[in-house]
Design a protein that fits this description.
about 425 residues, mainly alpha, Hypothetical protein af1432, two-stranded antiparallel sheet, 2 strands, about 0% strand, elongated
C-alpha cells in the first residue's frame, strides 16, 4: 500500500523547497564569472565527499568531509557558492530521481542552511578569501558563528521533517544536534585552513590535502568493514542460540539486565558490550547437545550444575576462545555458574570469580525467577537471600535498584 503523507508534512516540504529556491535566487547578485571553473571543481569535490562518506554502524551516523569543502567554498567565493551543496549534496540520497520531492527538499534544506551560514559570516565581518588572499584573524569568529548557525538551521529543518513520523520535535532536534554540532566544531576550522591553502597553492594544495584524506578513508572503511563482520558474526551466533532453544525473549532479558548492571557498576563501554554478548551467548555450548538431553537439561533450573551444563559451559567458552574479538568473554561463560560462597562447579568464590561471570550469574537467576512467574516481592526476597551466598552482593544491590526503579516508573506512567 502506498504510504500517504500527512497534509502537514506536505505543507512543510513545500515551504522548505520554496525557501531554498528563494535563497538560491538571492545569491545570484554575488556571482563572479571569473570563478566559474573554481565553482565546478569544488562542486565535483563536494559530490565526491558526499558519496564517499563512511557509516559508523554502532552509532548509525555518517562521517564525511563534505561540510568542510562546502564551507571552504563559502569562505572563498561568497554566498553564491551555496549552490554547490544545494545541487551536489542532494544527489547521493536522491538518485535515481524516482522521487523528485526528495531531491528538492534535500537541496533546499542545504541551500537554506548554508545560506543562513553565509549571511552570518559576511554580516559579522567575514570576507571572501579569494579577494584578500590571506586568512585575516577577523574571519575566525564569523566563521565559527556561521558554523553554529548552520548546525541549528540544518538540524531544525531535518528534525521538522522527521518529527511528523516520530513525534517530539524537541527530542528529535537534540538527538541530531548532539552529533551535528561537534562535527561543525571540526569542519569550520578545517574549512578555513582548506580555503587558505587554496589561496596559496591552488589545486595543488587541494591535492596535497585530499590524497591523504582519501587514503585514510580507505583504511577507516576497511576497519569499519571488519567491525561490521564482527557484529554480524555475533548476531549469527545469537540467532543460532535463539533458534536452538526458542528463548529469544529470555536471552534478551538477561542481556538487558547485564548491560544495566554493568553501567551501574561503572564498567567501561567496551567491557560492558563484551559482557552483554557473553550473557546472551552464555549457553552456546548447549547447541551441540541432542534434543532429548537438551529438553531434560532445560527442564531443570538453568543455574544448576549438572554434568551436562558444566560441560556445555566449558564447550561454550572454547567456542569463544577461538574468536579473537570474543575470547575475552570466554571466562564469563565458563564460570558464570560459580557461586559467591565457593559451592559452584570449579569451587571458585568471591572475587576469584570474574566480575563478568558474577553479573551474568545473578542476571540469569533473576530472569529465571521472572520466567517462573514469581511476584516482584518474591523476587526481591529471593535476591536478598542469595546476596552474599550465591551471588555477589554488589551485583544483587544493583539488580534490586533496577527493579525498584522499574516499579517507580510503572507508578508514574
Amino acid at each position: 500500500m502506498k504510504k500517504e503523507f500527512p497534509k502537514g508534512l506536505k505543507v512543510y516540504l513545500a515551504l522548505v523547497i520554496t525557501g531554498g529556491l528563494v535563497v538560491l535566487f538571492l545569491t545570484f547578485p554575488y556571482f563572479r564569472l571569473v570563478f566559474a571553473w573554481d565553482y565546478l571543481i569544488f562542486a565535483i569535490i563536494s559530490y565526491l565527499a558526499y558519496i564517499l562518506l563512511v557509516k559508523l554502524p554502532k552509532l548509525n551516523v555518517y562521517l564525511s568531509v563534505a561540510s568542510h569543502v562546502n564551507f571552504a567554498a563559502l569562505f572563498l567565493f561568497g554566498p553564491f557558492s551555496v549552490w554547490i551543496p544545494a545541487i551536489t549534496g542532494a544527489l547521493p540520497e536522491s538518485l535515481p530521481l524516482k522521487k523528485p520531492y526528495v531531491y528538492l527538499f534535500n537541496g533546499a534544506q542545504l541551500a537554506i542552511s548554508y545560506g543562513a551560514a553565509a549571511l552570518i559570516y559576511y554580516r559579522t565581518g567575514g570576507s571572501a578569501l579569494s579577494i584578500s588572499f590571506a586568512v585575516p584573524l577577523k574571519t575566525i569568529l564569523p566563521a565559527i558563528l556561521s558554523g553554529m548557525v548552520y548546525s541549528v538551521v540544518n538540524v531544525g529543518l531535518t528534525a521538522g521533517a522527521i518529527s511528523f513520523d516520530q513525534g517530539s520535535l524537541k527530542k528529535v532536534f537534540w538527538n541530531i544536534l548532539k552529533w551535528e554540532f561537534p562535527n561543525m566544531l571540526i569542519a569550520v576550522p578545517f574549512a578555513l585552513f582548506l580555503a587558505y591553502i587554496f589561496t596559496q597553492l591552488g589545486y595543488l594544495g587541494l591535492a596535497i590535502l585530499f590524497l591523504p584524506l582519501l587514503a585514510s578513508r580507505y583504511i577507516f572503511q576497511a576497519y569499519v568493514g571488519i567491525q561490521e563482520t564482527y557484529t554480524e558474526t555475533i548476531r549469527a551466533l545469537m540467532a543460532t542460540v535463539d533458534k536452538k532453544f526458542g528463548q529469544q525473549g529470555r536471552n534478551q532479558k538477561v542481556y538487558e539486565y547485564a548491560l544495566q548492571v554493568s553501567q551501574a557498576l561503572g564498567l567501561p563501554p567496551e567491557e560492558a558490550e563484551t559482557l552483554g554478548y557473553a550473557s546472551y551467548l552464555r549457553h552456546i555450548g548447549l547447541v551441540g547437545i541432542e534434543d532429548s538431553l537438551l529438553e531434560l537439561t532445560l527442564s531443570r533450573p538453568i543455574w544448576s550444575s549438572s554434568p551436562i551444563v558444566v560441560n556445555a559451559l566449558l564447550a561454550g567458552s572454547q567456542i569463544l576462545e577461538r574468536t579473537e574479538t570474543l575470547k575475552k568473554a570466554a571466562p564469563f561463560i565458563r564460570l558464570h555458574h560459580e557461586r559467591w560462597d565457593g559451592t559452584g562447579p570449579w569451587g571458585l568464590k568471591g572475587d576469584q570469580i570474574p566480575l563478568g561471570a558474577r553479573i551474568i550469574s545473578a542476571c540469569e537467576f533473576l530472569e529465571e525467577l521472572e520466567f517462573q512467574g514469581e511476584s516482584r516481592e518474591g523476587i526481591l526476597k529471593s535476591l536478598r537471600e542469595k546476596g552474599g551466598k550465591h551471588f555477589d552482593p554488589r551485583v544483587i544491590e544493583s539488580l534490586i535498584a533496577i527493579l525498584e526503579r522499574e516499579k517507580e516508573n510503572e507508578k508514574t506512567a
